[in-house]
């Protein structure tokens, strides 16, 4: 282990290994797919992945990802640097997976990422501040619970013919639109609007398979402005036109 803090760029190349120290990976830009001890996670802006010491993990980023990495030194360093926060920090570092950052924590990550993290004083003090912030800030119930996907799916299905906005879905969760967008991307791996489009298209696909409704009527029922727009989306996603899909069903 070299510096406590470092800036790293991840590419599509898969990295798979383990190390004796715990590690925190803070997303700055792009998306980093993580697997820690068999648990999948996605590191994006405003999230951090926790890699416990000695835990096998793999990561890769098809489109590239930039991250701030904290390689945690020894337990003695933790106790000397964090004082009363040390025990809580040790418990945090034993829990693999990703978690969301608060706006204040994200600002601290951004400030450190723009600082000379190769400076030993900045690295040591910055790492201590990050770890203390992760265990020292109480989080609301809305922040600790997962998103209510069943309720979101039901709302999308009920309003499938109407234009939906991120703010409409965010209100169901008691979150701001920006916070909801970040949490949804971290938990689901898609933006909210990409998810809405995927769900609408899948509903249309099921209607094609399960009914004899005209394609134009199905397109309207699932919120597409025209039959051609629905056909283009279906072909792009599933590789078949509505007619070809129905022909395959009959076969």
Protein traits:
251 residues, Arc Repressor Mutant, subunit A, elongated, DNA-binding transcription factor activity, four-stranded antiparallel β-sheet, DNA-binding, 2 domains, five-stranded antiparallel β-sheet, Jelly Rolls, alpha+beta, 12 helices
Short structural summary:
The chain has 251 residues and is α+β, with helices and mostly antiparallel strands. The protein has two domains: 5-139, Sandwich (Jelly Rolls); 149-250, Homeodomain-like (Arc Repressor Mutant, subunit A), CATH 1.10.10.60. Helix content is 49%, strand content 19%.
Q: Which helices and strands occur, and which strands form pairs?
A:
Layout: E1 5-10, E2 15-17, E3 23-30, E4 32-36, E5 39-43, E6 47-51, E7 57-60, E8 65-71, H1 75-82, H2 86-92, E9 97-100, H3 103-113, H4 120-136, H5 141-144, H6 149-158, H7 166-173, H8 177-188, H9 192-210, H10 215-221, H11 227-238, H12 242-250
Antiparallel strand pairs: 1-8, 2-7, 3-6, 3-8, 4-5, 4-7, 6-9
Helix pairs in contact: 1-2, 2-4, 3-4, 7-8, 10-11
Protein name: AraC-type DNA-binding protein
Organism: Pseudomonas indica
InterPro entries: AraC_XylS_family_regulators (IPR050204), Cupin_2 (IPR013096), Homeodomain-like_sf (IPR009057), HTH_AraC (IPR018060), RmlC-like_jellyroll (IPR014710), RmlC_Cupin_sf (IPR011051), Tscrpt_reg_AraC-type_HTH (IPR020449)
């Amino acid at each position: 282990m070299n510096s406590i803090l470092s800036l790293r760029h991840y590419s599509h190349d898969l990295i798979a290994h383990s190390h004796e120290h715990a590690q925190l990976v803070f997303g700055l830009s792009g998306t980093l797919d993580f697997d820690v001890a068999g648990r999948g996670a996605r590191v994006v802006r405003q999230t951090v992945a926790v890699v416990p010491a000695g835990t096998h993990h793999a990561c890769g980023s098809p489109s590239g990802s930039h991250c701030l990495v904290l390689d945690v030194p020894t337990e003695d360093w933790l106790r000397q640097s964090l004082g009363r926060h040390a025990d809580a920090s040790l418990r945090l570092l034993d829990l693999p997976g990703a978690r969301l950052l608060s706006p204040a924590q994200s600002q601290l990550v951004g400030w450190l990422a723009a600082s000379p993290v190769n400076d030993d004083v900045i690295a040591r003090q910055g790492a201590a501040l990050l770890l203390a912030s992760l265990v020292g800030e109480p989080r609301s119930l809305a922040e600790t619970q997962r998103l209510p996907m069943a309720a979101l799916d039901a709302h999308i299905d009920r309003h499938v013919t109407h234009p939906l906005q991120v703010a409409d879905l965010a209100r169901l969760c008691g979150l701001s639109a920006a916070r909801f967008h970040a949490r949804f991307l971290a938990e689901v791996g898609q933006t909210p609007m990409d998810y809405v489009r995927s769900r609408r298209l899948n509903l249309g696909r099921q209607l094609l398979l399960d009914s004899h409704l005209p394609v134009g009527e199905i397109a309207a029922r699932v919120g597409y402005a025209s039959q051609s727009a629905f056909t283009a989306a279906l072909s792009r996603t599933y590789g078949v036109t509505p007619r070809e899909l129905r022909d395959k069903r009959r076969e």
